# Entry
Amino acid sequence: MRPKIRLYVDQPLDQGQSVVLTREQAHYLFGVMRQGVGDAVALFNGRDGEWRAEVADAGKRGGVLSCSAETKAQDVLPDLWLLFAPIKKARTDFIVEKAAEMGVRRILPVQTEFTNSERIRQDRLQAHAIEAAEQCGNTCVAEVAALARLEALLRDWPEDRQLVFCDEIEAEGAGSSALMGGLAVPGAVLIGPEGGFSEAERKKLRALPFVKVLPLGPRVLRADTAAVAALTLWQQAVGDWA
Amino acid sequence: MRPKIRLYVDQPLDQGQSVVLTREQAHYLFGVMRQGVGDAVALFNGRDGEWRAEVADAGKRGGVLSCSAETKAQDVLPDLWLLFAPIKKARTDFIVEKAAEMGVRRILPVQTEFTNSERIRQDRLQAHAIEAAEQCGNTCVAEVAALARLEALLRDWPEDRQLVFCDEIEAEGAGSSALMGGLAVPGAVLIGPEGGFSEAERKKLRALPFVKVLPLGPRVLRADTAAVAALTLWQQAVGDWA
# Structure
């Protein structure tokens, strides 16, 4: 039977490998979830697949698990990033959770001209990405980057990575086969803030050689909806749904 | 200049038409938003397009607006329903909001074998759908139906409406052109609860002539993510993104 509890650990996983729990993990596993010596847990670390591990030692402030069998091979995700402008807390959390679920490799919060947020809690967003991976059974964990200015990111952009610009002003040809056919890997999807992009930003983005415009239909979508919609189209066209 | 405030009203809209506000709307418009006589508001009712209306009378418990010009023609949305199994409150709210944004006509909460919820607040969910339409500039409002048993809905299903069954166990061929080519209008998308569908439900659904199976990729998606992803694919293939 598959273990019901699934934990991300930042340690190597291999046959017979011992894994030392952090204080928080021990509290969760033994205190909250009432597990004890001999009980099985699923572990993943984002690189060594998923392992079944049994509790070898359980204490209030720590514990040790021992890996007994690989239960799932490591997924290799399509090389996709998501760039988004942070919005209200709940919706920002949601975007990170959704991107992690949908198999994005890197999540890059960006500051645009119309972005309200001056800061994000990178550690909290990273924890959301880990929790999404734990709950959805993914073996990969999206990496949340520090907040950066869009301008700076574009200046140092790796030119072989296509940047898919979801321009809400452009509604024609959304999801048309001509457009979808032009999507490429490695890729990145860029979602704007509430209020969209400035005229200067739109002009600049459209002039960059690695940018591709992808309209998202005739209705204005909120940023979190737009993110899931764009990631769906990408995964379907060139990602691992294709 | 476009009015910044956009309100849904359940009254006819036409040139010179007077619109009487409810007590709540008057409180919002005059109390919270500090509007007064002569100020302009955008109105829509889901059938007569969007109208610019000026405040003719403002009181504490009511008010009257007068329609002066049509600012947007009425949208006619592709005939799409969303059936979903209610989950936790915040995620249920989210699904309704997202479906309204994405242009679904009817939202039908369904009770499946693994659905936890025994009840929903239909009026609250309808208010969410209206708020999404107000904020996203839609002229249509999704109609939220009462909670019904999936079994009963299937028994009385209109046979000309394709039911797209998003089966999370089926991962192969997600978004493939063969599958996407088979989508049809009028349509409906069915999203399961956490824990998915029972074996009996899956078997029954797959045997129905109007059901089409649509896989949503290799990862398990939460219900709210799955809803947006499936609606994106549908709108792209046969809806108004096509």
Remarks:
- Residues 80-237 of chain A form a domain with the Alpha/beta knot fold (CATH 3.40.1280.10).
